[in-house]
Design a protein that fits this description.
Blueprint: H1 2-5, H2 9-24, H3 48-55, H4 59-73, E1 78-88, H5 117-129, E2 134-139, H6 148-163, E3 167-171, H7 177-186, E4 190-192, H8 211-223, E5 227-229, E6 232-234, H9 240-251, E7 259-264, H10 281-294, E8 299-302, H11 311-319, E9 322-326, H12 339-349, E10 352-353, H13 360-365, H14 368-371
Bound molecules: S-adenosylmethionine, 6-(5-methyl-2-OXO-imidazolidin-4-yl)-hexanoic acid and iron/sulfur cluster.
Iron/sulfur cluster is lined by residues 92, 94, 96, 99, 101-102, 140, 142, 173.
């Protein structure tokens, strides 16, 4: 294992410490302190073979190893609660074969215009009252071309919700570097733009936007100083190799995404994937565990389809290192586990919501003027992590 992972003496030393502490030992209570000294180095040079070996290891060993790595980087009792709102529904020109909002398919979703600011602000307030610390606004657009006034209103929404002390995320399709900079200036915390699957399988799912176009948007987001939220969907008909390929893509990025959503396809009537079988729980668990090991300081977000998993199945995912969820009334066009259901479930398992800006990666990207407004008792859940 060591010889597989090690590429250079420095990396070898770092990885030895990851493995020694991540795999073979029980996690002592004081590890919850996660001081800078105890945080292992991040790695950006995974080979597909290494990721495949981890992914295919015996499932309980895999979960145990992932759970151990998780405890070195995060407080395992904390899960980030994010509420989603679709601020512009349907009528999208893209052909993503899973999506209820594509105008190419006849689905139960009815298209509507960009919402006014006030209902969105109200929804963010309600989310905050219910314990959500991140609010994510989605728009069914390919990109922002020709949407200047709509984009300006979204900038206002971002600034107002950020002013409420919440982390703010948007997912608006492709972005130019300049649009990313404007979102950053408005106070945006994170931008969601998923790779969805491996580069090889991607053309079977979407033909109107290339994998490289997705990577360009992600680069624009990162260059603007916004946290990248980028993950995928399971249950598209992809193979283990494709799930490994997706993790390989994101774990070798110059910076690991701050957040990696793992969506389980919710089959939508009228889409090409309407008859796909719901993904197995063990496939979710393998994907979450492998992502946790390859990207130890990334938030792993148990995303679409979560409500279809039993409480015990969800708990296994949290055990394996998932530490964020979408919670509230709805996802974008499909149901979500409700706040009350989630509150009861979390209290049964001893899980609490993260505070806003609790993650080191998120705090580090905050503009100084915003950082000053963070309350003093908001201690980071992980110290700065070294990069190799
Ligand atoms: N239009 C934007 C875009 O494509 O980037 C933002 C919204 S899009 C709905 C965000 C992500 O939700 C997709 O990339 C996909 O991973 C996930 N998603 C969409 N429909 C889904 C479905 N039916 N089941 C599971 N995940 C889905
Ligand atoms: C992500 O990866 N999952 C969320 C969020 N990012 C925007 C969206 C899930 C959408 C599920 C299908 C729907 O509700 O339409
Ligand atoms: Fe449009 Fe996004 Fe749906 Fe693709 S996933 S069809 S880009 S809304």
């Amino acid at each position: 294992m060591l010889s597989l992972l090690a590429r250079s003496p420095a990396r070898s030393l770092a990885l030895r410490s990851v493995i020694a502490r991540g795999h073979a030992t029980a996690v002592p209570a004081d590890m919850a302190q996660r001081s800078a000294e105890t945080i292992p180095l991040l790695r950006h040079s995974w080979t597909k073979e290494e990721i495949s070996k981890i992914y295919h290891s015996p499932l309980l060993d895999l979960v145990f190893r992932a759970a151990s790595v998780h405890r070195q980087h995060f407080d395992p009792s904390k899960v980030q609660l994010c509420t989603l709102m679709n601020i512009k529904t349907g009528g999208c020109t893209e052909d993503c074969s899973y999506c209820s909002q594509s105008s190419r398919y006849s689905t139960p979703t009815t298209a509507s215009r960009l919402l006014q600011n006030e209902p969105v602000i109200q929804a963010a307030r309600k989310a905050k009252e219910n314990g959500s610390t991140r609010f994510c606004m989605g728009a069914a657009w390919r990109d922002l071309q020709g949407r200047k006034s709509g984009f300006n209103r979204i900038l206002e929404m971002v600034a107002e919700i950020r002013g409420m002390g919440m982390e703010v995320c948007t997912t608006l399709g492709m972005l130019s570097p300049d649009q990313a900079r404007q979102l950053k200036a408005a106070g945006l915390t994170a931008y969601n733009h998923n790779l969805d699957t491996s580069r090889e399988f991607y053309p079977k799912v979407i033909t109107t936007r290339s994998y490289d176009e997705r990577l360009s948007t992600i680069e624009a987001v990162r260059d603007a100083g916004i946290n990248v939220c980028s993950g995928g969907i399971l249950g598209l008909g992809e193979s283990d190799e494709d799930r490994i390929g997706l993790i390989w893509e994101v774990s070798n990025m110059a910076e690991h995404p701050e957040s990696f959503p793992v969506n389980a396809l919710v089959p939508i009537p009228g889409t090409p994937l309407e008859n796909n079988e719901f993904v197995n729980h063990h496939t979710m668990l393998r994907t979450i565990s492998t992502a946790r090991i390859a990207m130890p300081s990334t938030i792993i977000r148990l995303s679409a389809g979560r409500h279809k998993f039993s409480e015990a199945e969800q708990a296994m995912c949290f055990m394996a290192g998932a530490n964020a969820v979408f919670t509230g009334e709805n996802m974008l066009t499909t149901p979500c586990s409700s706040w009350d259901e989630d509150k009861s479930m979390f209290s049964r398992w001893g899980i609490e919501g993260m505070k806003s800006f609790e993650q080191a990666a998120v705090r580090e990207k905050e503009l100084p003027q915003y950082s000053q407004s963070l309350s003093r008792d908001q201690s980071p859940s992980a110290a700065s992590t070294n990069v190799i």
